[in-house]
Each structure stands twice: as structure tokens, then as C-alpha cells.
Hints:
The structure holds 2 protein chains of 2 kinds.
Chain A: H1 2-15, H2 23-29, H3 48-58, E1 83-98, E2 105-120, E3 125-132, E4 136-144, E5 152-161, E6 188-197, E7 200-207, E8 229-240, E9 243-257, E10 278-291, E11 294-307, E12 314-328, E13 331-341, E14 351-363, E15 366-376, E16 381-391
Antiparallel strand pairs in A: 1-2, 1-16, 2-3, 3-4, 4-5, 5-6, 6-7, 7-8, 8-9, 9-10, 10-11, 11-12, 12-13, 13-14, 14-15, 15-16
Chain B: E1 11-12, E2 23-31, H1 47-50, E3 73-77, E4 89-94, E5 97-99, E6 102-106, E7 110-115, E8 121-127, E9 130-137, E10 143-147, E11 152-158, E12 166-172, E13 177-179, E14 185-191, E15 194-202, E16 206-214, E17 219-226, H2 260-287, H3 289-292, H4 331-340, H5 356-368, H6 392-404, H7 408-411, H8 448-457, H9 473-485, H10 492-497
Parallel strand pairs in B: 2-17, 4-7, 6-12
Antiparallel strand pairs in B: 1-17, 2-14, 3-13, 3-15, 4-5, 7-10, 8-9, 8-11, 11-12, 15-16
Amino acid sequence: MITRILLAIVALTVVASSASAMPRFAARTGADCRLCHVNPSGGGMRSRYGSSVFQRLALPLTIGDEAGDDELPSFSPQITEWLSLGADLRAAYLYSAPDVLDDPTSSFFLMQADLYTAAKLSSHVSVVLDIGVYSGFEAWVLVQAASKPSPYDLYLKVGRFMPTFGLRDPNHDLFTRQGIGLGSSDRDTGLELTFVAGPATLSVALVNGTFGDDALDGHGSDHRSFEKALVSRAAVGFGAGALHIQTGGSFYLSDNGTDANPLFRPALDAAIDVAEGVDELRAGAFLLAGLGPISYVGEAVYVRNRFTSGGDAVGGYASAQELAVQVIQGVEVMATFELSDPDLTLAGDATTRAGLAAEVFLGPFFEVRVMGRRAFGPAAATDFLLFAHAAF
Amino acid sequence: MTKHGIIIALLVLAGPARADKPGAIHGRVVYDGTAPARSPLKVDVNIDVCAKHGPVLGEDLLVGKDRGLANVVLFLAGITERAPVARDAKLDQRGCVFLPHVQSVTAGSTLVIGNDDPVVHNVHARVDGETVFNLGMPLRGVHIKRRMKAPGVTVLSCDSGHKWMLAYVVVVPHGYHSTSSAEGEFTITDIQPGTYTLRAWHERLGIMDVPVTVRAGLDTEVTLSFGSKSARDVPLTFATAAEPRVTVTATMAPAIATEGDQEVALTARRAQRDVDHAAGRMSYLRHCASCHGDAGDGHGEAARWQSSRPRDFTRGEIELRSTRSGEPAREEDLVRTISLGVPGTDMPAWAGELAPSERRLLARYVMSLSDRYYQAPPSAPVVIPQETTRDAASVARGKEIWNKLKCNQCHGDDGGSPGASHRLVDDWGEDVDAADLRRSVYKSGPLPADLYRTLVTGLSGTPMPAFSDLISPSETWDLVHFIQTLAREPGLFDWLFSNEKE
Lengths: 392, 502
């Protein structure tokens, strides 16, 4: 019974997502994150185009559109010329049947409830606050060099945020997200510079290098002084006609951190005292490709941990891929495949997971998603997920 | 005068002086510098016709015998009295060159435009960057008439790839004007005695003013020495510094006649503009500004990712109109575009999202971004007659018209552009493609009447001209029927590779 409850809790935890970007839309349009998100690195609060145009008119089903009613004012999250609100709410039903259990578990739960506020203080400075019921909070100041839209720009982000690494997929339980320490609550505090030059972007961040949700990010304060984590991502986009491609690489180096990467935690040698310090390296590559209604999103990440307390360094690999087709506007079908291999052997501890999903944007700001997924390996299980998502 | 390097000789010619008789100004413009050689222009389209008689030479600085400077427009500035009757003027296209290169006409005059070449020309006229008319002229020997109403420098170019073709028609709000000949000579007659400012304009050198005293019944001779040092590079106006600027409007024809009623109406319209601007600002920022920009200049933060450039509203050029070529769009046109979107582009249809009152609010706000909509009362929409019978005969006639108008030169033989042998650019200098008519996704809308409207009005800001002067209403319907036959069912290839939005 205890095992079952624990597994249920784990299952609920891993599917809990925070507001994130939809890389497949970027793949199809060739646009970068800034088109739809306030954060130049993507995810979280939508830009005014993202909420007022894309979510409202480019995403939902157009069947049954009727002329607006004169009696109803149109909804807009832009309160004034300088103040905007946003929100993400996801409610889900999860059915999970781990192979190690005789009986499956099932539950309704609230995956996410985030409230966003963005204030544009001037043509160069904005403040963004994201208060999440489950995934903690983000709060940062964004300073933008260009006062007008420009293909060349420089952003400075200071505060508490999700460091820019790889693709910020909305599924935080992906092996390449939560599976390697980039889950919904793995925010960090520091500063980040983002350079934009036409189709190329480069982000470089200096952050504390922590896992988990801790407002003070005080992990390691007992033994760390100036040790920090350096995070970087470079991306470039190109294309011809309806074909759009974006590719890039990411890098994360944390000096003398306080915990092992989640990729290794289940199988870590008990003799290793991670509290003495962990040097972590993550290096990843990603590819987004879009051709008309078809999109491919793939990411692979190598992770290595060295432990101050001694022992051999451990290296592992995680990848996630999604092939999606927009059947008609508002209806998407997706196939996913993930691999998590904590010892680079493709055997033993390696886990693979394959899924099928359908997503329907029933109206502006609202979607429902059904997903079936099967994992093979040590955590073999069959999951079925249904969730409703409202966001603006 | 001398500090401007102007040499003026005033010579009162002999003759009996009569106080009540008008005088005249005879003069000559000489170039103050070394006459440059005329450089050949790059002719890369229709070479067999356009370069048939040798290279096409530049006309932007023509210096003739004894340094006589040609193509200088001269007129009296600050004149507010009623002008002589407007006359017709001619503009020909021969050897892919506009003839004459520069001329002045009285506001209200009719410009008769001809095409003597066996190639497609497309006369696009603009004043201060705003389209006055945009007319396809694919037929040799056919003439089109246009009334020149808006005072100012009308710049005419050809959108059919003949980038070197350029002409200037300076529309003067009165009749006291002239254009210097190849020898630099000019004459302005029937001038009431008095002291005037004689203003000279040259396309390249700029503007210079000369005081001139005209005596009753006498001819005054003036020589202007015009050079880059003596001229000012400023916009052309028709007023003098000493007098209040003469307000001229697009409807003011044939003479200047700033009637009190018009002034009152203009003031009322501009007051309405302020109201519209304030009322629609927030809605515009919420729904439109991310693409069209906070200032309405088409430079919103999302613009760079759009498949087509968001429209710059500050120039008042609304692509989809129900008005004649060159006339501003109507409020209803904007409401329609906002409601239905622009098929084939990223401009979405807002009808399902915004209430009718808000769409109208937005339309008025967009109009408030350009003074053009408040200079004159709204133009009347073109009349779309009832559709004729769509049958095989009509389609066959439409095909003949398609060939006659050489539509394939932009849209391709089967309607699936690109068919143009040259770059197509919009008014902002950006490359555009002619519509792929096989997809049957028309910017103007899905109905036959929408196609009809596009054919008779053209699409502002794009190379698509108006053909209303060349084909009758029944022929236009025939052409619509033929264009509809070009549509074909989209295949897998279209589904995968089309960049256009339905």
C-alpha cells in the first residue's frame, strides 16, 4: 500500500508542469520564443501577440465561429498600456499502471495554477512576476537594449527564473527536463544575458546552481562561496519556403553543487556522499524542424557528475523526441519517444518511453489533451492522462 | 539674392504701359556648374523594346545649349486668386521612357496617359509617397485619363519592372506656372501687376525662390542661375514665408479656392480624428499593435515573423478598398478587412472575436493614423454591377481579356505565379509575389464580387493595378469567371509546402 501511494505521488509529481513554450509551434513558424513569450528564452507569460493573436486566432478550432456579440466586450489580458496579466491553469486526470503493482492508481488533480504579471516600466525595462501554486515563483527584471523591435537586441534578465537550457518543452516530466534537473520547480537565481542577431540567439547565465524550489536558493551555503553554475544556450534558425529549421546547443556547468543530478539519483552508489559537493556538466543539442503542418522536436543531453567525496564520475544520457501533425487548425496529434540512460550502456537502468497524444484547442485560451504512454525498463508503466488547460 | 548665387537680370521691355493689363515673365534657367554627361540607365527588362534605339540615358540633370537647364518647373508662390482654366496635359510612354520627363499642370487638369510600347506598362503615381493612382497599361495605343487634383509633385513610375522609368508632374494650385524647355527657357503669362516670389523646382537640385516685379502690360525677363549651391533641398510648397500657407486639399479643383465651408469641414474632420484616435487606442494596442506597431508603422515586435509585412497605416495606404485607384479606403473597407482578415496572409479574421462596435472602433483608429482620411470627405465606393451569366462563353471571353491585359506577365500562364520576368516590389520596397490564382485564396475575399472589386480598384501599396479604365463591367465579370477556372484542388504538395494561410 505504501509503495502504491508513493508511486502515485511520484506519478503526480512528474506530470505536474509549469507554463512553458510550445516548441512545435516555433518549429512550424520558424519564429523564436519572443514571438509568443515575454521571456526572450521562452516559457511562462505570453507576449501580447502570444495571447491576443496566436492563442486567440491561430490555435483554436475555427469551426463554428460566429460574429462577436456587441453586448460582450472582448477579453484582453492587457490591462493598461504598461500592465498585463496572464495565467496558466491545468487540471488533469491520471491513470497509471506500474508493472510492479497489481492495481493501477488514478486521480484527479490540479497540475498547475500560475498567475503572471508583467509591467513595462519603460521602453527598456519590464518586471515579470510568476506566482505558481505548485511550482514556486519566478520574479525578474528584464532590461532590453533596443527600444523598438529590432533583429539585433540584447536582454539582461536579473532575478529568479528558469535558466535557459535546451528546449523549454511544456512537458516538464520529459526525460530531458525533470529527468535531468530542469523540472518545473528547478528555478534558480542569478542573471542572464541574451544576445539576438537575426536568426541567431545566445544566452549566457550565471546562477547559483541549485535543484528544487527554494526561494532563497541557499543550497550549499554551508560549503559554497563563489562557486556558481554557468548556463548557456546558442541557437540558429534558417529555412526555405515552408521548411523551417532551428538547431542549437546548450551547456551547463555547476561547480561544487549540493545534489546529484536526478538522472543518477535512483542508482547512485550509497557510498557517495553527495552533500560534500558535486561538479555537474550537462551538454545538449536540439533540433526543431517544421514543414507545413508537420513538426519534429528533438533534444539529447549528456550529463556527468563528479563527487568531491570521491568515487568515479558518472555519465548518462537523456533524449526526447516528438513528431506532431496539425490535422486542422486546433487539432494536433503527436507521437513521442524518450530515452533515459544513466550509465551510457543502453541496458540495465535505461528506460524508454513512447507515447501518443492528441490535443484539441476547443476555443481561444483553452485546450484539452489526451495522452497514452508506455515506459519500458526499471520504471515500466502504462499511463493515461487527460487534462484541460486554460491559459492566456 | 547674391548670397544664394543667383544672377537676376530684370529688363523691362519696351512697349506701351497700361496699368490694367496683365504682364508676363519670360525667362531662362541656366545651370550653375559644369554640365554633366548623361549616364546610361540600367535596362534589364524588355530589352528588345526598351533598348531598341540604344541605351536609355538619365534625364535627372539635362543641360542644353548655353548651359540652359531643362525640366525646371517655375510658378508664382503665394498666389491665392482664382486660376486660369485647367487644361489637358499628356504623358506618353515610348521606348520605355515617360515623355515628357517633367511637366507642370494646373490642379484640376486632366492628364492623358498613353502607352506607345508593345509591352506592359504600369503607371504608379504618388504624391509624398501616397498613391494617387496605380493603373495597368498593357495595351498599346490606349489612353487613360486622370484628373490631377492633389497639388504637389506627383512622381510617376512603372511597376512593370521598368525601374528606370520616372516622370514628374508638378500640380500647381493655379495657372501661373511653366516648365523650362531644353534650352532652359520658360514663360508665364497673364499675371496681374505686382511683386511676386517666383519659385523654381528641379527634381535633383531642389528649390529656389526669386522675387519678381511684374508691371502692367509689360514683359519681365528673368534669368535664374540654378545649381546645387543656390537651391534648397526642402519639400515643395506653394506658399511664401510672408503669407500664411495656402491650404490645399485633394478635392480642391480646378483652382485653389479655399472656401470657408471647406475649411470648416476640414476642421470638423480633424477634430473627429482626435476623437477616433483616443477612443480606439487601447483596443488597437491590445489586438493590433504587436504586428502593426504601437505607432501603426508596421513595425510591431511580431512583424518579423509574419509571412507578409504588416501594413504601415501611417501612409494611409489600405490595400483592400472599394474606392477608385488612388482614393483613400472607406471606413467600411477597414471594418471588412478587420472582420474577415486577409486570406493568404497572417492577418486573421477578427469577426468571431471582436464585437462589431469594437471592429468599427479599430477601423476609425487606423484611419486616424493618417491625415489622408481627414483631408476630404470619404470617397464613394465603386459600383459592382450584378454578376453576368457564368458560362463557357463568358470564360472564353475572360481568357481573351486575360491574354490581352497580359495578366500572365505577373501571375504566370496558368495563374500560379511567379510569372513576372522582373522583381515585384511593394510601396515599401519589399519583394512581393503575385497571387497564385490556382489556390483560389484571394486577399479580397472568396466571393466573385470580391475579385471584381480587386480588378477595378487594384490593391494599394502593391504592384496590382486597377483595370477599370481598360475593360468594361461585363468584360470584368468575364475575367472574373476565367480567373475562377484557374483554381485547382490543393494536393499533398500544397498542404506540405504552402506558406500561405487559408
